[in-house]
Design goal:
Blueprint (H helix, E strand, L loop, with lengths): L1 H21 L2 H37 L4 H54 L2 H6 L2 H40 L4 H48 L1 H6 L3 H23 L1 H30 L4 H39 L24 E10 L2 E11 L4 E6 L5 H8 L7 E6 L2 E2 L5 H5 L2 E4 L10 H6 L7 H10 L2 H7 L17 H15 L3 E5 L7 H15 L3 E5 L11 E6 L2 E6 L1 H6 L3 H9 L6
Parallel strand pairs: 3-8, 3-9, 6-7, 7-8
Antiparallel strand pairs: 1-2, 1-4, 4-5, 9-10
The chain binds adenosine-5'-triphosphate and magnesium ion.
The site of magnesium ion (MG) has 4 residues, from helix 11.
Amino acid sequence: MAKKKERLDLVQSTRNFLAYAMRHKGLFFAVLLVALVIETGTVAERYIFKLVIDDGTSHAAGTLSSSDFAHALLLALGLYAGLLLVKTASKWLSIHFLNMLDGRIIAEIKRKFFDHIIDLDHKFHTTHKTGSLISRMSRGGRAVETMMDAVVFNFAAMVFQLSVTMLALLTIGWLPVLVIFLTSIVFVGYSLLIFRAQSEAGHVANATEDVERANLGDILANVDSVKYFGREEAVKRKFFDLTERTRLAFMRSWNYFRHSDAGQMVIIGIGTAALLAIPLLGLLRGDTTIGDAVFVYAAYTSVVGAMYGFVGGLRSYYRAAIDLESLYYYDRFRNGIEDAPGAKRLVVRRGAIAFNDITFSYHGSPLFEGLSLEIKAHEKVALVGRSGSGKSTLVKLLYRLYDVDGGEVCIDGKDIRSFRQESLRSELSIVPQECVLFDDTIYNNVAFSNPRASRTQVRAAMRFAQLDRLIKQLPKGEQTIVGERGVKLSGGEKQRVSIARAILADRKVLVLDEATSSLDSQTEHDIQRDLERLMRGRTAIIIAHRLSTIMRADRIVVLERGRVVQQGTHDELIAQQGVYRNLWELQRGGYIE
Ligand code: ATP
Ligand code: MG
């Protein structure tokens, strides 16, 4: 069963590859045609050599005059020179066309998967490791080039050379044609058998290496934690085990080469003996020329070369096909959050938000069971609650990173599922709980949220988020590169970049998910005032553990295990016994009010 599946996968992979080649039919067939010319030229060269030897033998035997022989030699020389010219030009063209073809296909396949993966939903991205995604993308792109090289330089070359050689050998007799044909059939058949067995081992080896890479990425991303906790030896041991597993998996796959190489040698040896016996016996009988014998041997040697080339090509083709297939694994994923047919563009007029009786669960464990919450246009609502109570998830549902299982999320009274996602998200602006930045300048990281913003607007947003003080201290100012994921900035600085970004986006609905949690109290206090100004005329959802930041909200909603347990203004809530008052008592006194 497993074997059958592997074979089907190879067929599928080849089909995927050919689909790309066929998008450039003209180039692809030009490459093949040129390959045919080259192989014909090679056989023709050998044939000229045979004619010269035959004439030479006649001349030595005295049956061909010196002047006739000289003529024949001149003719051969002319033919050879012509052939050389054609072959050189063909070789040049073949590489030229192939480079064009490979270049285009690699770019196309990378773009296809990049576009596809970027469009996939949040769920896909939270469940797939970046390391494995990157390696599959780059290996998959290169795989197409390898497959194309194998098809042109190895498969087509061998088929063409074999066909032309067999045609030429017909001038000598059908027996050498038959022997060459049988030898190549047995040779190729045997090699295919071994490769079929090897394919599964190849899959396992690739998967093992993927695990190793993903772990490597994870460890390197967490290298700070490794150092803080002095876990160097432990991760070294872990990496040792991972590489050991990869080594064994690759050994199992590589070991098949022992059988294939030894077996091929036997097949070629028997073929050589059988083939050489034919003209040599003919020589003995006197009905074959020395030229024939030399031609048969020379033709056979180059066919053998082509067969080895074929097998070498097969190896790389197979490995590349596996790589391509593991890239196509992503092709099976569909965006779980689809735009409804005929979905319209959302334009937020008022900015009223409603969660109507929603149910939602992550992987089967329920988080919301019939939660309802209405936020009026221009209202500032704060969400408060224990860690894990579902605050960020509520925001994700509003952004439609996930669809609710039951109920509906509405903006201005309309279900958000009736709008195009991209238009929904372009009406919302967020300072997310975890902000990760591009490895780019501070300026570009802010401008990212609104490419149409002018320089003045970007600078104003940076000033708003109090980034100007930081920028003044940096030698390169706003052009400072923030490092991968923003590592060169402090937590609070990153958060300010994130705030500037949200401000620049300038949307009707603003979400602040712990937007100021990493700031010192003074900066937070200053930004807070500005944020309040910013929120005027907008609907805002503010999530914060520090109650001092939300006490001026129009309404505070207390969530507990996915349910609204209390709501009201700060003053109303501290007047009641309950979760909010307890939290307030705990926090009071430590913050600027
Ligand atoms: P915090 O105050 O710590 O930010 P929160 O109220 O924002 O907490 P959420 O992030 O909404 O909490 O998470 C609510 C629950 O859902 C948690 O128990 C969390 O473990 C779970 N959860 C969140 N994201 C996922 C996910 N992608 N897959 C599975 N479970 C998740
Ligand atoms: Mg959260």
